[in-house]
C-alpha cells in the first residue's frame, strides 16, 4: 500500500488555497481523485465537501471518476485540427478499442480530448500523462504506445 | 434573552454556547450565529457533551461531562479573576457580592475542573480568556443548562460569569436563554406559573394580590401553588383530585412516564384540551377540541421577549373551538362569566394589569412585534435588558458550589443518559409526527452512542438496543457517532413508541425551579 | 536577416534559464539592482515612460496598472500569468525555457515598485516541466541572493483556459473554481485574497529588466511608437516555418507570413490568417499589410492578442475551422454568466448544423445577433471574444458559409 | 453624494450606491435574476445590463458602482436586445411546462419573457438533461428548469450555512449539485428550504405544497411559527379554507426574528393542521370509552365535575396545566380561570420540559 490520502494531502495543508495543489498530488498517485480522498481534502482544508467537489469537477485535468494508468489526451484545438487531429483520434480509438472518455478494459489507457497544450511547433500533438508526443500521425500510434504497454 | 436575536448575528464578537444544540433546536438562531462566525469572524466557545454542529466552527470546544456545568463555569471565573481579565468598573458600579464569589471560585482551578468535567485544563483557560477578552461576548444556553437538579444554580453561575466581565446590558452581550417553545416566554409572562401573576408579580405579595382581586372582582388565594412536577406527585399522593390540561402532553414530556401515568390514573377527573388525542388526552374524562395556531388570533412572545401577532388563517377544523373561547365557556359555567369578544379584548385586559406589556397594543404590533418591557404606548420596547441598571438595582453575584448530579453512573447503570430534541421533530411529536414529510424523513427514535462505548457492548450502527434506567426501558435503534462523549448516550423524547421519559428521573428536581434532571440519568444499554 | 529583433530571447539556448549566474553573466539582474536604488514611484514612472503595454492581450499600460495599487496597503501580491491557453500560443513557455530569470527579475522589480513581498506564478497544468524549471530557477536566484526577501511560489493550473483571465486566475490560486470575478473592483485594488495585486503576463514581466537596464527611452524607441518593444510570435497552420520569433512591434503581418514563416506550404495562396489565438479575428489576405502592433491590428478589426499567428491556405474549409473554434469556447466557458455559458453552447450547435450542411440562413442571422449580445453583455473577456472568430469569418467569407447552407 | 443621469432623469445618490439601486431610485424597472439584496453579488445573469455612454460594453448594473456624471440608458435598443437574447437562451434550456408548474404566475422567467415579448427561443436545440430524481420528502429539484442564477447556492451558504450545494462541472455542463451528486438526504442539507425561497423559477419547489394551489390562487396570512421560541414570521398560504403552504417574508420589519429564513419544521411542518387525526368533536368518557358529544354536554359535564371536586376537596385539590404552545391571551385566561374561578395557584406549564 502506498501513502494514505491524508499523507498525500497534508504537505499542502498550510499552503493558502492549496486545495488544487493537493488534488494534483492525489492525481499523480491515482490518476483521479477518489471520493474518500476528496472528503479527506475537504476536511483538511476545512471547506465544505460540496465546494471541494465543485473545484474537482471544474478543471478538465481533474477527474472524480476512476481513470486508466495512462491518460492519453488528444489536442483538437484549431491548429492541431487542421493538422489532422481528427484522423489521429480515429486511429487512437481504433487501436485502443475505446471511444473518447473511456478506459481500456485492462485499466491501462484512458482516452480524452483536450485543448491546446502549447506545443504547436510540431503538430498534431498528444500527451500521455506528463509526456508530450509531437507530430503524431495515425501510422505512428502503435510505436508511440508501445512504450507504455 | 437579555439581548436580541439580531445581536447574535450582527453584534456579538464572542458567543459562548453552553447546553444548547442551537442549529437543531433553534435552527434560525443557529444560522445567525454561524453567519456571524463566517462573515464577521465572531469566535465561538461551545460547551456540550455532544459534539454539536457549531462545535466545528468553535475556537474552543469543551465536551464536558453532563451535570458538571458549575465546575466548568466556576473554573472559567477562577481563570478570569486570576489573570485579572475581569471588568472592575462594572463590578464596582453595577454589582454586589463579588467578594463572596471570588472566595468560592478560588478552589475551582482549571486542573480540578479538568478532572471533574473531563476536558483539558488548557481549553478551559483558553475559553475563559476568549470570553473575558472580548468587548462584546454573549452567552446562550438552553435546556442543557436548566434541566438538571441544579439548573437554577447553573443559571446563577452563568450570570456570575457575565457580570464578572461586564457582559450585561450592552449590544452583543448578555445572558440569553433560548426558549424551546413558541410561546413559553408568553406562558411565563402571562402568569402560567404557580407563584406569579402576569408580569411576574408575586402572588404572595399583598399589594399584587389586591390589584388582581380588584381587577377580577374576586378573592384570590394567597399562597403559591404547585409546580407541574409537584402537582403530578401530589396527584399520586391523592392530594390533587382534578387536573385541567390545555395543550400539554405530560405523558411524554414529563420525566418518568410510568410515574405520570399512575398519577393521572389516580385522578378523579381529568380534562384535556388539545388538537390531537395525545397520549395524555387518551386518559382524560373529557377532551375538548381546541385549534392550532392557524385557526385563531392572538399573540406569542418569542425568546427575545418580542410580542408578535398570530393570525387566523382558516376556520377551526370540524367543531373545534379556539381555546380562548373554550376557556370563556368553562369559566362562565363555573359561575364566573367571561364574555370576551376577541383575543384583542383579552389583550387589552392583560396590558392593563401587566406593566411590562402596558405599552403594547395590537395596532402597534400589526407590522413589527415589540420587545417587552414596554411600559407605555410611546415606548419603543426594550431590545436589551439591564442597560443602565438591573431591575433590582445592583446585579447580585450568587456564589454557587458544584454538586454531583442526583443520579451518577454505577456498576448497574454505568452510562449517563442525556435527552433532548432533534432538528426534525418538536417536543412530544404531537404535531411533527403528524406531518407526513417529516415523519417519513425521521420516523424512528435513535440513541446516539460513541463508537468506543458501542464496542464495549458489542453494538453496531443500526442495531436495535434496549436502553434502561431505574425507571424502565425502551427499545430503539443505535446510531454510532463520534459526536458524543464516551460513556454518554443521547436520545430524544419525540417518540411515544420509544419515549425517553420512560427513563428519566422524576425524583430529582431542582429545588427552586422544580425542573427535572432530564440531562443526567444513570443508564445501561444492551443489544437485542 | 529576416528582421527579427531579439531582446527577451537574445541568449536563447546560450544560457541555462534555471541558473541565475548564467543570466547574471549576460547582464541579468542589473535592472533589479538599479530599481533597488530607486523610489517605488520612480520605478513606476520609468515603466510608464517606456510605454510598455501588457503582452497578455488587452494591451493595457503596465505602468498605469502598477500605479493603481494603493501605496499603503499592508499586504500586496505580484502575480505572473503563465496560463497561456490560446490555441497556437506557446511564447510564454519559450520565454521561460530560454530566459526564466528575466521573468523572475521582472516580478521582483514589480514587487519593489508596488511594495509586495510575495509573488505567484500561475503556470498552466499543461506545462509541468515549466513548473519544475521555474522552481529550480527560483531556487537558483534565491541562492544567488538576487531576490532578497521577495518570495515567489509557482502554482499549477489544471486545464481551464478561462484561468488566463486575471480574476479567474486569482480564484484558482485561491483554490477555487476558476470563475472570473466582476470588475470593479480590479485586482490592483482587491485581488488575491482581497488585497491589491498586480497580474501581468510572462512576456510583460520579462520586458521589465531590459527597460530598467537600458532605460525607458531606449525601449520606447523600439517598434511601434504606441506599443513599443518586441513581441514574441508563434506561427502555426499552413506555413513553411512553424516556429517562434521575436520581432519589433512595427513588423508587418505580411512579413511574418512570408519572411519569417517562409510563406504558405506548398506554395499555395493564403486564405486567411488568425492572429492572437482562437479568440482572435480572422484576417483576409487584403488586410495583412498591417503592422502587428496593438493599435494597427485594432484598426483592421483584429487584435494582436497572445501573438499566435494561425495561417490557413486557400484549400482550407474556414467554416469547419470556425466550427472547431466554437467547440473550443463551448468547452472552455466557465458557465458563470448566461450569455457565455448558453451562448457558446448554442453557437457551437448552430455552427455544427451549418458545417454539416443542415444550417439555414436564419442560423447565420441568429449567430450574428447572438455574437453581438455575447460581445456586449458577457461577464469576462472569454465570452466577449468567443464570437469574434465566427463573426469575422462570416464577415469576410460569407460565401463559404452560403455554400454550406441547406 | 454622486449625481448621474438615468433615462434622462438626474438622480443624486450616496457614494457607493450600486448602479442598480441608482436606476431603481430613478424609477427604472431593472430586471434581475441572480441579484438578491441579502446575498453576495454574482453579476452573472446579465439581465440587469444597462447602456452607459462612453462604454463599449453593456454594464451589469448590480455589480457596478454608480459614478459621478454617468449617462445611463436602461431600456436602449442594445439593452433590450441583450435581455431578449438572454431570455431566449435561458428558455432554450428551460423545461417549459408552465401549465403544470408550481411557480406559474410567480416566476421571474415568465414575467420577463412576458415583459420583453419573448414567445419562443430561436436557439432551441439540445434539450436540458439535468433532472435527477431526489427522493427526499421536502424539496423537489428539477434542474431542467434551472436558469443557473446560483441564488440557491448562496442562500444555502450565506443564510443557512449548510453548504449542501455548489456547482458541479463547468460551462454548459455546469449544474447545481451536492458533493458527489448525491440526494439531499445524503448531503449536509438541513431542509430549511431557503433555496426554494430564493429560486426565481420552478426549479426548486416544496414537495409538501405540490399540487395544492399556486401562489396567485392563495390568500396569504402573516403569522408566527408554532414551533420553537425563535418566533419566526411566516406567511400561511390559504386556499378554500385550508392551509396549503408556507411563504417566507424577507422584509425585516415584518419578519424581525428571521428575515424570511425558516427551518424544516417551519417551512414544511404545517400539514398537521389538516391531519385526519385532528380532534373535531368534544369527547366524554362513557363506560370507559371516549365518545363524541355536543359542546353543551361536554362543557356542562366539565363544569359539573370541577365544581364537585372543588366542593368536596377544596380549590387546591385542582391543578391546571397551561400551555407554552397556546397564545398569551389563552394563557392569561387559563391562569385567571385557575386563580379567580377555581381559586388555586396550582397552575404551571411545561416551560422547563
From TrEMBL, chain A:
Cofactor note: Binds 1 [2Fe-2S] cluster.
Keywords: 2Fe-2S, Iron, Iron-sulfur, Metal-binding
Presence of the UniProt keyword Iron in the record: yes
Superkingdom of the source species: Bacteria
Gene3D superfamilies xref list: Glutaredoxin, NADH-quinone oxidoreductase subunit E
GO MF: 2 iron, 2 sulfur cluster binding; metal ion binding; oxidoreductase activity
Binding residues annotated for [2Fe-2S] cluster, in chain numbering: 75, 80, 116, 120
Requisite cofactors: [2Fe-2S] cluster
The keyword Ligase is annotated on this UniProt entry: no
UniProt similarity note: Belongs to the complex I 24 kDa subunit family.
Protein name: NADH-quinone oxidoreductase subunit E
Organism for this UniProt entry: Thermosyntropha lipolytica DSM 11003
From TrEMBL, chain B:
Record-annotated Molybdopterin oxidoreductase domain positions: 1-332
GO molecular function, one term: metal ion binding
Keywords: 4Fe-4S, Iron, Iron-sulfur, Metal-binding, Oxidoreductase
One GO term of the biological process aspect: respiratory electron transport chain
InterPro entries from the UniProt entry: Asp_de-COase-like_dom_sf, CT_Formate-Dh_H, Formate_Dh-H_N, Formate_DH_asu, MoPterin_dinucl-bd_dom, Mopterin_OxRdtase, Prok_molybdopt-oxidoreductase
Superkingdom, taxonomy of origin: Bacteria
Occurrences of domain Molybdopterin dinucleotide-binding (ranges): 415-521
4Fe-4S among keywords: yes
Record carries keyword Aminoacyl-tRNA synthetase: no
Gene3D superfamilies membership: 2.40.40.20, 3.40.50.740, Dimethylsulfoxide Reductase, domain 2 (3.40.228.10)
Any one annotated GO CC term: membrane
One Pfam family from the record: Molydop_binding
Similarity section: In the C-terminal section; belongs to the prokaryotic molybdopterin-containing oxidoreductase family.
Matches recorded under PANTHER family: FORMATE DEHYDROGENASE H, RESPIRATORY NITRATE REDUCTASE
Protein name: Formate dehydrogenase (NADP) alpha subunit
Organism for this UniProt entry: Thermosyntropha lipolytica DSM 11003
Lineage: Bacteria, Bacillati, Bacillota, Clostridia, Eubacteriales
UniProtKB/TrEMBL annotation, chain C:
PROSITE patterns: COMPLEX1_51K_1, COMPLEX1_51K_2
InterPro entries hit by this protein: NADH-UbQ_OxRdtase_51kDa_CS, Nuo51_FMN-bd, Nuo51_FMN-bd_sf, Nuop51_4Fe4S-bd, Nuop51_4Fe4S-bd_sf, Soluble_ligand-bd
Domain NADH-ubiquinone oxidoreductase 51kDa subunit iron-sulphur binding: 319-364
Segments forming a coiled coil: none
Key words of the record: 4Fe-4S, Iron, Iron-sulfur, Metal-binding
Pfam families for the chain: Complex1_51K, NADH_4Fe-4S, SLBB
One Gene Ontology term of the molecular function aspect: metal ion binding
Family matches, as Gene3D superfamilies: 3.10.20.600, 6.10.250.1450, NADH-ubiquinone oxidoreductase 51kDa subunit, NADH-ubiquinone oxidoreductase 51kDa subunit, iron-sulphur binding domain
Family stated for the protein in its record: Belongs to the complex I 51 kDa subunit family.
PANTHER family assigned: NADH-QUINONE OXIDOREDUCTASE SUBUNIT F
Protein name: NADH dehydrogenase subunit F
UniProt source species: Thermosyntropha lipolytica DSM 11003
UniProtKB/TrEMBL annotation, chain D:
Taxonomy of the source species: Bacteria, Bacillati, Bacillota, Clostridia, Eubacteriales
Origin species: Thermosyntropha lipolytica DSM 11003
Entry cofactors: [2Fe-2S] cluster; [4Fe-4S] cluster
Similarity field: Belongs to the complex I 75 kDa subunit family.
GO BP terms in the entry: respiratory electron transport chain
InterPro entries found in the cross-reference section: 2Fe-2S_ferredoxin-like_sf (IPR036010), 2Fe-2S_ferredoxin-type (IPR001041), 4Fe4S_Fe-S-bd (IPR017896), 4Fe4S_Fe_S_CS (IPR017900), Mopterin_OxRdtase (IPR006656), Mopterin_OxRdtase_4Fe-4S_dom (IPR006963), MopterinOxRdtase_cofactor_BS (IPR027467), NADH_UbQ_OxRdtase_ferredoxin (IPR054351)
Key words of the record: 2Fe-2S, 4Fe-4S, Iron, Iron-sulfur, Membrane, Metal-binding, NAD, Oxidoreductase, Repeat, Translocase
Record's protein name: 4Fe-4S dicluster domain-containing protein
Ranges for domain 4Fe-4S His(Cys)3-ligated-type: 78-117
